[in-house]
Amino acid sequence: MTTATASTPTTPATAPGWWAHRFGGMSRTFWILFAGTGLSRLGFFVIPFMTFWLVNDRHLNAGQAAVVMTCFGAGWTLGMPAGGWLADRTGRKGAIIAAGLLSAGAYLLLGAAPTMPWLCAAAVAAGATFDAGRPAVQALMTDTVTPGRQATALGLLYWVMNASRFVSCLAGGVLASHDFRILFIVNAVLNVAFAAAVARTVTEPARTRTIGTPMLRTVLADRRMAAFTLVTLVFFVVHTQSVVTLPIIMDQAGVTPVWYGIILAADPLAVVVAQLLLQRQLTSRPAYVVCAAGIATVGAGLAVTGMGTSTAWFLATTPLWVCGEVAVLAVAPGIVAHLAPPHLRGAYFGVWGATLGASALLAPGIAAVFIDAGGADLLWACCIAATLCAAAACLRLHHQPQPATLTAAGAHPKGQTL
Predict the structure, then answer these.
(1) Which pick of 53, 100, 146, 217 has the fewest CB atoms within 10 Å?
(2) How far apart are CA 215 and CA 85, in angstroms?
(3) Mean pLDDT calculated for residue range 264-270
(4) 402's torsion region: left (phi>0), alpha (psi -120 to 50) or beta?
């Protein structure tokens, strides 16, 4: 497929300052979505605490918890492509509002589910709506900033989501120690607030609608996009062990909910700090190479954390794999933005984002199979092997002929490719 090349900006007389390089040149709509996403993600603590809640509060065993998390993953896998399709077909703004309202209702239902069948059904609904608005947010951000700032804008979206997740993990640990149901109520309120803010303040720019366009088929026919999506899926399946397998290992090691929240908070805190410090270095290098290094680092780092038996070990080793997470997710959305034609940005982000849900669907079962076969050590060894293979595939994409000459982040010297 044909993609548009990023425009080459005129070299300024003076290099931009620290703040301007990271935050300058963004549209009003971007800042509304940036702030609104940060607000809604303060309720993110429901996701990382879900396995902990199922095991401790609902008294499910590891197998039952895995079933519920698999149901959540099934919904998540379908929700993001559906949200991307809706964003391209009917509009970005409406998709964001619908996702926020539906997600609020789904999480209230999940928190009140009385039996295992209800838990599974509510988990599917929560998964389907949890991230359904993200492709629309990503597409609308990309629509409303200049080509040279698109990758930076998407990186900032990842940054604010982690800043909010840091706060929510700390607050979630405290709230979970009193009553897990509070988590679901707060999450619902924040999602409704985000939907209301978008409805009142965002004006969507005019664009070509995609009536009659076979969107998902078009995305999947793009071989480079399909390959990068598969690489991302492997990355997320391994990364998802941080919220599927690690909570069980930590619970067996005697980690309390408060300390679990502190350990979880070390992840987004490290992301926030590292991205601010390293954003220029990451985005000034070939994006596929940065992704490859990050994927391999996540596999090795998670294995080190997973072999721990104490709270201090878990806390000290979490930043190891977080560094890899930063490298991948600071540049990967920019790759998708460059591959996507403007009228199909929602679909591209939706299909790529489905890897998050698919990983939540696949990771529990994969973990159970390998742990039953050879214990946690076998699982972590396979995670290392899988990420090394994915990193090699990412490097192969870098060395293959590019569909167009693009900069790593859309705002660097001409001739540097993805």
Answers:
(1) 217
(2) 7
(3) 74
(4) beta
